[in-house]
Write the structure tokens for this entry.
Amino acid sequence: MDKKEQLYEGKAKKVYATESPDLCIVSYKDDATAFNGLKHGTIVGKGVVNNKMTNYLMKKLSAEAGVPTHFVEELSDRDTLVKKVKIVPLEVIIRNIAAGSFSKRFGVKEGTPLKCATLEYCLKDDALGDPMINDLQILACGFATKEELDTISSMAFRVNDYLKDFFAGVNIDLVDFKLEFGKSADGEIVLADEISPDTCRFWDKTTHEKLDKDRFRRDLGGVEEAYDEMMKRVLGE
Ligand code: UDP
């Protein structure tokens, strides 16, 4: 399947049409941004890591946790064939350990284990700075229906249950992560976007070293090395 016209260019990926109206090609870039686009940079090799890790995890989530995804076929190191979906305009954030904006907003020290996993939604809208939004506000604005939200939240917790165990197996604490969901042509809600060090916080269980995009956001150095290390732990390469 070949790339036709570019449909969209985001901060970290480009999306192309294909000869099939139901399929797109996602192409992962090395560009990195943070703080709603205020900080820009390049993380060499990131596109390859994020593409391969996302596909590997989506295949496992589908086969072993019964989570439907947009994944169809990995075409190359950076390119993947996916189902064409309409993205639900929500960032779905699941947390197991306090960090980042949660720690800041609620005054809970970074690293504090949460008594139960939490879920929060942010509206995907760069101009508004992706504001936090609750269930009733989502329904009131029509960003998703009650049925869609029920499906999205239960799938998100299922993803968390599976991934927490998976990452524990490679000595990683899955601190928090962001998911996006899409609606396929036949109305099915599927997991879309990516699962990678760009969208998850990964801490080594033993050393608590950060192995994710916080190394870029917080200028900690060793950014490429952290992405490579995660690739090695997840894919063994
Ligand atoms: N996240 C993301 N994209 C965003 C915002 C957050 O992938 O636009 C991920 C982030 O990598 C982290 C989790 O969601 O794993 C929670 O992020 P948080 O709300 O703490 O925001 P941050 O501190 O990164 O601004």
Remarks:
- The chain has a mean pLDDT of 97.
